[in-house]
Amino acid sequence: MADFGFSISKPQSIDTNDMDVGRLQALEAKVPSFKRCINCGACTATCSAGQFGGFNIRRIHNLYRWDQRKGLEKELQQCMLCGKCTLVCPRGVNLRYLIIRLRKALADNK
Amino acid sequence: MKEREKPVHGDDNPKPREVKRRLKSTKRISRRKRLEFEEVELPLQVAIIGGGVAGMEAASVLTEHRCPVILFEARPELGVNVKNKYKIFPDFSDAGRLVETMTKAMDHPLITVNKDTEIVEIIREPDAYTLLDNKGVPHTVPAVLLASGYEPFDAKRKEELGFGIYEGVINSLQLEDMLREHKVLNSLGEDPRRIVFLQCVGSRDEKVGNHYCSKICCITAVKQAIEVKRQLPDTEVYVFYMDLRLWGQGYEELYREAQEQYSVRFVRGRISEAASTFDGRVQIKSEDTLLGQPLKMVTDLLVLMIGMEASPGTQKLGKTCGLEGPYGFVRSKSPHLEDNLSDKPGFFLAGTCKRPMHIAEAVNDGRAAALEIIKYLRK
Amino acid sequence: MTTKKHYWNEYQKEIADDKYFYERSCIRQTFFPGSETAFLRILKEELGKDILDVENQHTCTGIGFYSDIVPLETTMTIVARLFSLMTEAGYENYVPSCVTSFGVFSEIVDLWEHQPDMLEKARKILFETTGRTFELPKNIAHPSDIIYKFREELKEKMRYRLVNRFTGRPLKVVEHIGCHYAKIFPDKGVGKAEFPHVLAGMIESWGGEVVDYPERRHCCGFGFRQYVVRANRGYSVANSKKKFESMQPYEPDFIVTNCPGCTMFMDKWQYTIAEMEHKTYDKKGYGIPVLTYEEMAGLLLGYDPWELGLQLHQVQSERLLDKLGIHYDPNEKYKSVSGRILPNPEKPQYLRV
Ligand SMILES: Cc1cc2nc3c(=O)[nH]c(=O)nc-3n(C[C@H](O)[C@H](O)[C@H](O)COP(=O)(O)OP(=O)(O)OC[C@H]3O[C@@H](n4cnc5c(N)ncnc54)[C@H](O)[C@@H]3O)c2cc1C
Ligand code: SF4
Ligand code: SF4
Ligand code: SF4
Fold first, then answer.
1. Count of domains in chain C?
2. Fewest beta carbons within 10 Å, which of B6, B116, B268, C52?
3. β B119-125/B2-3 pair status
4. Are residues C127 and C248 in the same domain?
5. From the CB of B119, is ligand 1 less than 6 Å away?
6. Is the pLDDT of residue B351 over 90?
7. Rounded distance between C-alpha atoms, residue B58 and residue B363, angstroms
């Protein structure tokens, strides 16, 4: 093949047409309060892990909503399960439990 | 507004001088029978322009106070702007039934309803107003209530969203029809796999000249999303919003219910383009702004949550009366204590001719305007 | 697509009738010079218009300007000089051949309208450096506007229609409008920005069918600096690829564009993609031919395909010519102006020619 000195860029957008909604629904069935999130960011703001490692729990669960799982498992290892996020959530999302289920779901679904 | 001293009148219409005379006698009557003046029939009619919920409620209250009313509705039916909905927020009650109840009340000896009658001009006389209808008939009355309402935004003006071009792009009123028929189908006549709602179509958008929020469409989307899910539990439903404005009593709770019970997914981002796909569905372009990433999405139906604009009647009459406010709505005397008054004595305002409102607000406003009119006539 | 006509017709821009001052395009002259020649021929011979093509003209700086290499003041002065050529020649209707130039002129004129001091500055610099003065044009129209305006007159003179000779069905045509034609100033484009009618109008009048595919309004990816810098070209080609993927299911017979950048990149990136990923967007591996609107008009008017310069495109057009029923002599394909037969170009490895 001719060497063009560049390669064709890959799409950066989230493809929602290919996603498997079933995975999200399974998680929501386990942690129904997850559906109520309004993306206020209180969880991220208070998260101890988030202050140093660039870890963002809100972003993680949003990515999972679109079935974007790449790298999430590793990222979630930063969580210390301290539960502060659950404490502050105005919509009563059981974040700590969500994280536990999410870790499991990610591990099971490799 | 045209003003004149000596107008020409049809035979049935009292002349301004006559209006003045009868007004004087009204005041005499009310002074005499101060305690029970509701029982005294006022000798003059009040004209109401617009047979929406605001106009109809005002008519009911006026007749309760024995005041004769002549109601003009440009369309062949009363209450069309509510009747064109299926179930209304916040309680999912039946829009048709609400209009039916209100329309029934118009069947009253003191109310003359003129349907198919558009008021095209208003002339200010000394102590009276002469309204000209589309048939050229003048009506002279001592007091006028403008309740000429709103017009749903014409989404064709947002060309990029493909309304009126692609069959899969519909507006919220068309969805109401589908919900009423229990036939929410995609353009191929199949059950939709996915439905996307887009908020703020025609509102909060400099490109169409409307900076304001229509304030009913956020909750309408929540209501419709729930309706869709009740009829089609397996359909994925997304609502794309810029801000969610769920300000009324019970609205936030309904939003929560939509998320929790019905798995409606709310995405912050404005859809900037819609196009038809090869298989007749709709491709949209948007960003999930909470993630900062663009989305690729194809949907069976794109529902545009159209806002409220001043109706053509409101715009026209507001202009001719010199009461033109922002965006073609009419301007009241002051927003706090004189919101049903205009700066013209005897000329009153009610409902969505002033600004976007939901039904209860428009109804309450019509009621309040009626009381202002009674106060004016009996003074 | 028929439902759309209604919206397209709602907005028509003003396009001068006659007496045009023509400004050539750097890219067009280099890569498909036959198009410019065809445009002048159509205007003069078919429509009997007065169009002036002067010798002492020069670049509009568009590519450099939009790549942030040329500063605003320079571009303004260049535009001022081109206008002075028009003024000196006694013309008032400016016709820039290139969509990028069209963007530059519209933008500079708009700037001058909003900031009269900048106009004064341009006048001053031009006068001090060249002793020239200028008037602003009465009308700026792109050549595609003019062909659009006279599409029905041209139709009368056409020998062919955009109809597949073998099936009798309208040819399926993808039309692509250069971003700088109407996205910067929607009012300056026929049909405005979302559903421009300038090329669609020609296609419909001449018997073809416009393909409305999802990425119709997406940029071709040229993007100036995105192409100029080699490391950025992957981004540029990805945009074209997005469009090709989106149009592929409709099996278009050809693509027509009104911007030299788009013509070039939608044509040449097909080669790049074929060589890099072994992918073509037609069924047989030849790619989708990309024409300019003058080439399309010229073919239908019966002009010789090789004189129009179709052989200079990357994707070859013989199969399209066959569908149109247009005769061509394969032996004349690579003949120079002086009549010498030139050697055949090297063949790509994957893209069939
Ligand atoms: C998509 C959508 C959904 C909605 N859903 C809900 C809901 O679920 N719940 C809720 O509470 N509210 C809802 N609303 C709001 C509701 O429709 C309005 O609050 C209500 O209709 C306002 O009543 P109105 O009498 O002020 O005006 P209108 O209903 O507009 O009535 C005005 C009348 O005046 C007539 N008219 C105008 N000019 C003239 C003239 N010159 N001469 C004679 N007649 C004239 C018009 O024909 C019209 O019938 C919704 C609105 C929209 C756009
Ligand atoms: S439980 Fe995890 S995500 Fe929540 S605050 Fe603690 S460290 Fe952060
Ligand atoms: S605090 Fe609760 S509602 Fe807010 S972003 Fe976190 S999970 Fe969502
Ligand atoms: S109510 Fe919601 S959808 Fe309607 S204009 Fe306001 S913010 Fe937009």
1. 2
2. B6
3. parallel
4. no
5. yes
6. yes
7. 8
pLDDT at site A1: 60
pLDDT attached to residue B31: 54
| Domain identity same for B227 and B113 | no
* Residue C126 shares a structural domain with residue C57: yes
What is the domain extent for residue C308? Answer: 159-332
Q: Is residue C346 part of a domain?
A: no
* Chains linked to C by 3 or more Cβ pairs within 8 Å: A, B
Q: C30 with C87, same domain?
A: yes
Both C286 and C137 in a single domain? Answer: no
C-beta atoms surrounding B98 within 10 Å: 18
Question: Distance from the CA of B82 to the center of ligand 1, in angstroms?
Answer: 6
**What pLDDT is recorded for position C8?**
54
- The pTM assigned to this predicted structure is 0.93
Residue C226: the pLDDT is 82
Q: Phi/psi of residue C247, each to 5°?
A: -90, -20
Interface size, chain B vs chain C, as Cβ–Cβ contacts under 8 Å: 28
User: Are residues B60 and B72 located together in one domain of the fold?
Assistant: yes
Say whether pLDDT at B376 is over 80: yes
Does the structure show a pLDDT above 50 at B37?
Answer: no
Per-residue tokens: B344: 């013209």
Instruction: Let me know if C92 is exposed, middle or buried by CB neighbors in 10 A (0-12, 13-18, 19+).
Output: middle
What is the CATH classification number for the domain harbouring C50?
A: 1.20.1050.140
From ligand 4's centre to the CA of B243, what distance in Å?
7
Q: Are residues C102 and C185 in the same domain?
A: no
CATH number, domain of C311, equals 3.40.50.11810
Mutation pick from C226, C276, C347 vs chain A, by most beta carbons of A within 10 Å, is C276
Question: Looking at the structure, do residues B118 and B66 belong to the same domain, yes or no?
Answer: yes
Number of domains in chain B: 3
Contact C238 A10 (CB under 8 A): yes
Question: What values do phi and psi take at B292, rounded to 5?
Answer: 70, 35
Q: Whole-angstrom Cα distance, residue C286 to residue C319?
A: 9
The mean pLDDT of B120-132, rounded to a whole number, is: 93
What's residue C2's pLDDT? 43
Please identify every stretch of chain C with a pLDDT value under 50, giving residue numbers as ranges. Answer: 1-3, 5
Summary mean pLDDT of chain B = 92
Q: Is A35 on the interface with B (CB under 8 A)?
A: yes
The reported pLDDT for the residue numbered B19 is 76
Q: B248 CA to middle of ligand 3, Å?
A: 22
pLDDT exceeds 60 at position B33: no
What is the percentage of chain B residues whose pLDDT exceeds 70?
Answer: 92
What single-letter DSSP state applies at residue A11? P
Q: Let me know if C319 is exposed, middle or buried by CB neighbors in 10 A (0-12, 13-18, 19+).
A: middle
Per the structure, the complete domain to which residue B84 belongs is given by 46-151+309-378
Amino acid at B330: V
Q: Is B190 in the same domain as B301?
A: yes
pLDDT at B212 over 70: yes
User: Phi and psi dihedrals of B330, rounded to 5?
Assistant: -95, 155
pLDDT band per the 50, 70, 90 thresholds, residue A3: confident
Question: Among the listed ranges A44-53, B96-105, C155-164, which one has the minimum average pLDDT value?
Answer: A44-53
Q: Is the residue at C85 inside a domain?
A: yes
B245: CATH: 3.50.50.60
- Please judge whether B275 and C250 are an interchain contact, meaning their C-beta atoms are less than 8 angstroms apart: no
Per-state percent for chain B, helix, strand, coil, to nearest 5:
35, 25, 40
A36 close to B (CB below 8 A): yes
CB–CB contacts below 8 A, A to C: 34
% pLDDT > 90, chain A: 85
Are B295 and A32 within 8 A, CB to CB?
no
Q: Is residue C341 part of a domain?
A: no
Atom of ligand 3 nearest to the CA of A91: 3
CA A95: distance to chain centroid? Answer: 11
The answer to whether position C90 is within a domain reads yes
The whole-angstrom separation of Cα B37 and Cα B45 is 16
Per-residue confidence (pLDDT) for residue B34, from 0 to 100: 45
